[in-house]
C-alpha cells in the first residue's frame, strides 16, 4: 500500500567526518550523485520498519564505503522532493574504517574542510548541518 502523498517520506543520513591524515584538522565527507549532479551528505530513504539511526549508518556504508561511529543527533531537514514532503534525520558520525568505491548512486566523494564543504554543498539547507557538526565536534 502506497502512503498518501502528504505523508512525509522518511529518510536518514550522516554528516560524516574524520581528522585529516595530513594535519589532524576536521574534514567532512560529501558525496556526488550523478543522477542529480549534486553534492550532499550521505543519506537515503528508510527501509520498511528500519530505525532512523540504523538507516543513517547503512546509507553511509552504501554510499561511501565507510563504517562510522554515530555521535550527536543533528537537525532534521524537511523539504519537498518529487512533490512529496521529505524528512531527513541526521547524525554527526566519525568515519572509522573503509574506503570509497564508485557505484551507480555515488560516483565521487570529497573530504573537505568545513568551510570548503559549505561552499561545495548544492543545497543551502545542507550547510547548516556542517555548522552544527563543528559545534558538536570534539576539539
In short:
This protein has helices at 52-64, 114-120, 124-136; strands spanning 9-19, 26-33, 38-40, 43-45, 66-81, 84-98, 108-112. It is α+β, with helices and mostly antiparallel strands and 139 residues long.
Structural class: alpha+beta
Q: What coarse outline follows from CA principal-axis ratios? A: globular
CA distance, first residue to last residue: 47 Å
Spell out the helices and strands N to C. EEEEHEEEHH
- Gyration radius from CA atoms, angstroms: 14 Å
What does this structure look like?
Helix 2 runs antiparallel to helix 3. The longest helix has 13 residues, at 52-64. By secondary structure, this protein is an alpha+beta fold. It is 24% helix and 44% strand. Strands 1, 2, 3, 4, 5, 6 and 7 form a 7-stranded mixed β-sheet that branches. It has helices spanning 52-64, 114-120, 124-136, and strands spanning 9-19, 26-33, 38-40, 43-45, 66-81, 84-98, 108-112. It has 3 helices and 7 strands, in the order ββββαβββαα.
